[in-house]
Amino acid sequence: MAEEVDVIVVGMGPGGEDAAGRLAAAGLAVVGVESRLVGGECPYFACVPTKMMVRGSDLLAEGRRVNGMAGTAQVTPDWSPVAARIRDEATDDWDDKAAVDRFTSKGGRFVRGRGRVTGPNEVTVGDQVFRARRGIVLNPGTDPVAPPIEGLAGTPFWTNREIVKVTEIPESLLVLGGGVVGAEMAQVFARFGAKVTVVEVADRILAVEEPESSALIAKTFERDGIAIRTGAKVSRVSHDGKAFTLHLEDGELSGERLLVAAGRRTDLKALGIGAAGLDESARTIEVDGNLRAGPGIWAIGDVTGKGAFTHMSMYQADIVVRDILDEEGSPANYRAVPRVTFTDPEIGSVGLTEAQAREQELPIRIGTTRLQDSTRGFIHKVDNEGFIKLIEHADWGTLVGATVAGPMGGEILGALAVAVHAEVPVKELREMIYAYPTFHRAIQSALADLG
């Protein structure tokens, strides 16, 4: 016999937890279902712990920049404070009790287990069956993907879930994948003393970003002693109990540890969405502007294919909550989705890249400036390289994309994200007053370069 509730939230990642908590606080009978940790990847295996790792890495780099600028310094890396922060401050030793209590204190009911859609408005968790009067919210998240390379399966390789639990830095690290996770972790481990090699099948690292961003990070990696192998296809992986070997077409690479950062995916079949009339064979769940996937069913987060970001999941959760509570609000708008790669220098981007704009055959103008040519760049001096790149729709007179690569690139991006989202006319941006001497004042120079 199914137990009736108002809403069932399957997957308590950032968006699912937020939606479930807010709906419960609004007085609805809400069941939150999660088989792993409430809060999802972000607080335990991704955003928060990895940025603590990045923070440690950045502090080491800043310490080394003292020489010739403000005195002399000899920096000795120590991973133990980083590992302790992740264990004690970020993850509570990978315990989600605080998150569960936060949800239940709002009136929600938490069920630990794997939720599966078993019919319209019905979810089964183990031997418990729940039926939703208002609907189901799906926030299943994603799992790391291990590419089908001979010999890889069964070896003790790391994904993002294992690497955040590291207590000692290996002598050497192979990174399979030069995307965001691979790039961030490569730099962290190199700066803490590991010999790092990044292996990427594409012709450049950070391939979804502007080519100028890839070039800047590649140059920085060279200074950090990180080897990069692009256009590299791994035919086989072997592990002898002490080290990994990647077999390439033109040779072999060996390292004590291997990080596989080759993407993520969701198993929609295991989620059982076919029972609700949805396509289990798809890579993502198709949703409308209110995140509705069908009658009485919503989807949020990575599974929607709109961007695998915590801020995306939270944004979508807000829309779903309003829709379920029949509150007014705008439908989803993905015109200005920001993203930040927390390498040093940071890569912050919003909207379209130049390549994406040209693929859409938009009439565009490009404006760029180098951060090192700004007054703040002159003051900053050491490791001041970077750029701002603006993409203007020539007919509309508004920005459709922007990239800020350089010191604090993700923070400078904020002003440009507002401009893209609100469709602020370039004319208005040119007439703004930009504080001096700041990095963000370089936006003015990039605007001037638009012509």
Automatic annotation (TrEMBL):
The keyword Zinc does not apply. Residues 337-446 form the Pyridine nucleotide-disulphide oxidoreductase dimerisation domain. Its cofactor is FAD. It comes from the Bacteria. The keyword DNA-binding does not apply. GO terms for molecular function: flavin adenine dinucleotide binding; NAD(P)H dehydrogenase (quinone) activity. InterPro entries: FAD/NAD-bd_sf, FAD/NAD-binding_dom, FAD/NAD-linked_Rdtase_dimer_sf, Pyr_nuc-diS_OxRdtase, Pyr_nucl-diS_OxRdtase_dimer. FAD binds at residues 51, 115, 302. Pfam families: Pyr_redox_2 (PF07992), Pyr_redox_dim (PF02852). Belongs to the class-I pyridine nucleotide-disulfide oxidoreductase family. This is FAD-dependent oxidoreductase. It comes from Actinomadura barringtoniae.
